[in-house]
Amino acid sequence: MTDFSESGEARRPRLDEKRSFGAGAAPKDSRGWSATAMVCALFIILAAWATFQAAGQHAAAFGLGGTVSSLLFWVPVFCAALLLWPAIKSVTRGQKARDAVAAHDLITARIETASALNYAHYTVGFAALFVVVIALAQFLMANNLAVSRTFLSVPLLDLSFPLILKAFWVNIYIFVVAEICVLVWGLIVAVARLIPGKTAAPIRAIATLYTDIFRGMPAIITIYLIGFGLPLSGLPILKDLSVETYAIIALTLTFGAYVAEVYRAGIESIHWSQVAAARSLGLTYMQTMRYVIVPQAVRRIVPPLLNDFIGLQKDTALVNVIGSIDAFNQAKILSSNYFNLSPVTVVAFLFVVITIPQARFVDRILEREQRRTRAG
Amino acid sequence: MAMIEIRNISKSYGTFQVFDGLSLEVEEHQVVCLIGASGCGKSTLLRCLNGLESIDSGEIRIHGDRVTGPGVDVNALRRDVGIVFQSYNLFPHMTVLENVTLAPCKVLGKPKAEATALAMPLLERIGLAHKANEYPDRLSGGQQQRVAIVRALAMNPMILLLDEITSALDPELVAEVLNIVRDLAADGMTMLLATHEMGFAREVSSKVCFLAGGKVHEEGPPEQIFGAPTQERTAAFLQRIVEAGRL
Question: What is the pLDDT of residue B217?
């Protein structure tokens, strides 16, 4: 509080004066949140009960046996019921906080309020998760299980999985070879774009033009043009390659353009003082790139590189336009034979499954690199 | 004939004239300190000597050979003229030993074992042999700067350029770096230093040059420059340094 002395000037607070802080006020009432948590928990339990009772009945109708169908009902309902625990905690803690405020025990009131809010947030967060699960279950059971039968027909999944997995090796072959080619080709293009000096202007122009064209052209069109165009061209060697090789060439050209830009960004992100240091020791421009700049750039671009690689892996599904029997083409054949999309679900699943370990692997190597070179 | 002859060089960045007919001679085994206000061209002059910057007119000769202008093999020049930077600029992805042996291996074509055999005594000399397999980011600033000096020395240069090598260091780390420079001076290494460490400049240098107005405004032995400068501008500069408690 400002205090005016006789002279009318603001008096400076003395050091031993007790100052009051805004945080000294009583904590806000948390009971609104607690009530919300309780309502959410009860709602989720009811919704889970209704949903998974239906799921259990469907399972029983399939002849999955009493144990499976009752598990299908009781496990989710039990999990939903667990929400009651934080909800009740939130309510009781909130009440304790109010009691503490009434008794002017601010410290306890703050602790209890914080804890009540925490429990309430837990409840609402997990309730949101349950909403997603229940909605998904409802979707799959909608229209008397029509959705499940279309996308997740168990017998068809079972039948198509080995065939599609076998065809998936074609995708793996294409993207592994293409990724190796892209790594080399992208670096060549990036370095060509960055060569300094007036005399190298034409080289830079070629590299820029290439990047502009192939980054702009849809991958499916590049695959189409190369896959059908080269055999028709009658050029020696180039006309007799396998469909997979055409796919590799097309994907290398497309993704080489992306990756060249990633490399370029990485190289340009290295501070010029590193170039000065290397050149000052007598290293040539190319030696500086080779030993000092590119090794540092590569470490920085691993995450965006993985992005482009995952893009490349997914785009191997486009090779079906030139008739390669890859996983997607195989799945399309199966799904038109059985008039059901479950085989395509298998392909989707396979593509997702292969990317996850790669992401974790990249996280791991980055972490290890950091531990090795960064200070303590 | 002086070892380094800088004759009447001029250079400008856009409208800013860094050098306006600057001339300077450095004899072999001399230690020359460049002092002057920020932006007076101390660092630029060192970078020109090493071919990292070009000049607009005039010429620089080392042992009578012109090292500026078209047709000069800058890579060959840099083998003989080493430079150490204010911000160390070690290669963070290489160990200390790899930093030191990179240029001997790749530029001079020495086998790795030979380069290592030459590098280890140098690291020993600066007391960092036990850090040979450490990465630069794990070293203190003073240690990094000592490694940077050794990296330049590993090429066995005729001339060593030191560009404000203690400016980025915590005060208690400055001495460990300056001791190495002192040793090198005692060994007869020809050195040019851009520095703000006036006390050190006074102690170690055989000649001090005060740069101002794109020229060497005043040069002479340290006792004269620091003790009895003849030029008003030099005296004013030194006065400010004294006021800042740096001399």
Answer: 94
